[in-house]
Specification:
Blueprint: H1 7-19, H2 27-45, H3 50-55, H4 59-62, H5 67-90, H6 95-124, H7 131-135, H8 151-171, H9 181-199, H10 205-213, H11 221-235, H12 244-260, H13 266-286, H14 296-327, H15 331-376, H16 378-385
Helix pairs in contact: 1-15, 2-5, 2-14, 5-8, 5-11, 6-8, 6-15, 9-11, 9-13, 11-13, 12-13, 14-15
Length: 390
């Protein structure tokens, strides 16, 4: 069926999907996802404008890498919300269904990019090292030898998608799902402890950062924080309705944790980032949202952010030498690059969303709907209650 659709029909379908956010959509999460992808693009642009970065050391440029941690928190909230809801309803997790849902969301575009890079290597002889690491979602443990730009964080998230459902399913057999909060708190505490031991005896700052920034077991604080927030929303929703004093507390935690970024060691830095963004996220989920932040543009960027994240490193690599030669490496060139090539990347992300992501998402929804219908069919009921089955 999908094969019969024309390119124009696919583009129209993508445009139609972006025009209609789901009923349960939370605008504040769209704004945060827009912020996350903007921070990442700003940060990656910095390598092409070293002079501008040295003379304009604001948090946006200095801590642009933290956009990945914000993505982790948002992923933790999304995935955690699905898992806690299922645990609350059934007491267990259907791991196969969960992997099917996430696989149809992540894999089509990701493996399309891997295939494109492989084709460049085979037909044009371009250097594309470590594609097998990208293809097996293990590049975060070999950060110097992979080809998908920013792919290390997707590897971290994929490891999270595979590990957490199984862990929660097994743990729920021994502990009440509501009491699995302790598992998240142990995870958060263990990460800082692991970083402490990994960094023992190391003195080179660059080697220290590489040692703890990329691996899942040293840098998944944001995912744990997102899982914690989704636990609160599922099992303790009354917390979301507490008085305004909680908003003040969350704002103070956010500001205090953010200030701590400037002095924190690598042992505690990613924990502080997770706490500050986690407090900000909880705050925005609680407070009335200004109309300006409900603009549809935030939903569009949020919906396309996965494509933007995957596509922008390769695009910048090809166009920035010409951009800096034409406009220069000062601030005008920096901000022009962000807005112009940001829009271009959004356009490319819309094309990949329409041609790759959305068709697979629709296929996934049909498969899940057929599976639900099969589970509820009269034939299933008759099979259970027939005399031969007793």
């Amino acid at each position: 069926m999908l094969a019969k659709l024309s390119p124009w029909a696919l583009l129209v379908g993508g445009f139609r999907d972006l025009r209609h956010p789901p009923v349960a959509n939370r605008p504040c999460l769209d704004v945060l996802r827009t912020l996350a992808v903007s921070l990442v693009v700003f940060y990656h642009l910095g390598s092409y404008f070293p002079h501008a970065i040295r003379t304009f050391r604001t948090p946006v440029f200095r801590f642009g890498w933290s956009g990945v941690d914000l993505f982790f928190i948002l992923s933790g909230i999304l995935i955690g919300g699905q898992l806690w809801k299922e645990l609350k309803a059934s007491g267990t997790v259907d791991v196969r269904r969960f992997i099917l849902r996430r696989g149809f969301r992540i894999w089509p575009l990701y493996y399309s990019l891997v295939a494109f890079l492989l084709a460049e290597r085979l037909f044009f002889g371009l250097n594309r090292p470590g594609l097998w690491l990208d293809a097996t979602f293990s590049a975060n443990y070999f950060p110097a030898n992979h080809s998908v730009g920013g792919g290390w964080s997707l590897c971290t998230e994929e490891q999270f998608y595979l590990l957490i459902p199984i862990l929660l399913m097994v743990a729920a057999k021994f502990v009440s799902p509501k009491r699995l909060l302790g598992l998240i708190l142990v995870w958060l505490a263990a990460l800082s402890l692991i970083r402490h031991f990994v960094l023992l005896g190391m003195s080179n700052p660059e080697e220290m950062q590489i040692a703890v920034y990329y691996p899942f077991h040293t840098h998944s604080d944001g995912l744990a924080m997102g899982l914690l927030i989704s636990w609160i929303m599922t099992w303790k929703p009354e917390i979301m309705r507490l008085g305004r004093w909680l908003d003040v507390v969350l704002a103070l935690i956010c500001i205090g944790a953010f200030a701590f970024w400037y002095v924190a060691s690598l042992t505690l830095l990613y924990f502080a980032v997770a706490v500050s963004y986690g407090a900000l996220t909880l705050l925005l989920l609680r407070v009335p949202f200004p109309a300006i932040f409900r603009w549809r543009v935030f939903y569009v960027i949020s919906r396309l952010s996965y494509g933007v994240y995957l596509l922008h490193p390769g695009l910048l690599k090809h166009v920035m030498p010409y951009h800096t030669r034409l406009i220069g490496q000062a601030f005008p060139g920096y901000f022009t690059a962000f807005f112009f090539w940001g829009v271009v990347t959004l356009g490319l992300a819309f094309v990949t969303f329409s041609f790759v992501e959305l068709p697979f998402l629709k296929m996934r929804d049909r498969l899940l709907a057929e599976k639900r219908m099969a589970e509820r069919s009269p034939r299933s009921v008759l099979t259970v209650t027939s005399p031969s089955a007793t």
